[in-house]
Amino acid sequence: MIYRPFTFATVILTTLLQACASPAPTPEPGMEVLQYGRNEEMQVAPGVDWNRYNKIILHTAPVEFRENWKRDQERLQRITFREEDLERYKTAVSDQYGKVMYKKLSAWDGYELTDESGAGVMRFLPRIVDLDIKAPGWVRGANIESMVNSKGNLTFELVIRDSETDELLAVAWQHQSDPQEGYLEMTNTVNNTVAFRLMMQLWADWLIEQLEKAGEPRQ
């Protein structure tokens, strides 16, 4: 499958993230809140016939570290991160996300992944922000182990559009933290990867659950 770059609906998702502090977020113009919680929210366009969609174009997810991540890690680890080190982290996280989403979406009954726009095709435009790897497992090829009580956290964002009309169908976000958070343990490249993969799987399961809910008849 071919992953392609895209222009992201930053304003909408930024508003959604700010709205998480309120008990009942206000929907964006032309949207309605389907699901919300302290660490998650999904809004959908009303009147969408979700049953007409049976294919998905999955785009590559750009990745952004949380603010001051590099500075904080250099102070903690007493090492210097080059730009190529940061890009390697971003690429690794984005590639892992693509693999997890591809597997989850491929197993979703009634849907298939495609590279071609057309009738009944949705475009999934993901983004990962505020990536916070608590203990980088490697730097410049060296395996480094650290004792931490969390391997990290990140926020998933997603814009869903009709591939033909570019109509906005849904926007969603969810914050995920290491499921084993609170247990002091040694971490390295391998268990960092496992922890972040699990966060991605939990996000994918939640997203599919919400989309199935969107397709159900409303009361």
Explain this structure to me?
With about 220 residues, this protein is an alpha/beta fold. It has one domain: Rossmann fold (3-Layer(aba) Sandwich). Helix content is about 30%, strand content about 30%. It has four helices and twelve strands; from the N terminus they run αββββααββββββββα. Strands 1, 2, 3, 4, 5, 6, 10 and 11 form an eight-stranded mixed sheet that branches. A two-stranded antiparallel sheet has the order 7-8. The chain has a two-stranded antiparallel sheet with strand order 9-12. β10 and β11 form a beta hairpin. α3 packs across α4. It is elongated. The N terminus is likely disordered.
Short synopsis of the structure:
By secondary structure, this protein is an alpha/beta fold.
Topology:
Blueprint: H1 10-19, E1 32-37, E2 40-44, E3 55-58, E4 63-65, H2 69-77, H3 83-106, E5 112-113, E6 121-133, E7 138-139, E8 142-143, E9 146-148, E10 152-162, E11 168-177, E12 185-187, H4 189-214
Parallel strand pairs: 3-5, 3-6, 4-6
Antiparallel strand pairs: 1-2, 2-11, 6-10, 7-8, 9-12, 10-11
Helix pairs in contact: 3-4
Observed structural traits:
elongated; eight-stranded mixed beta sheet; 219 residues; two-stranded antiparallel ribbon; Rossmann fold; 4 helices; 12 strands; alpha/beta; 29% strand
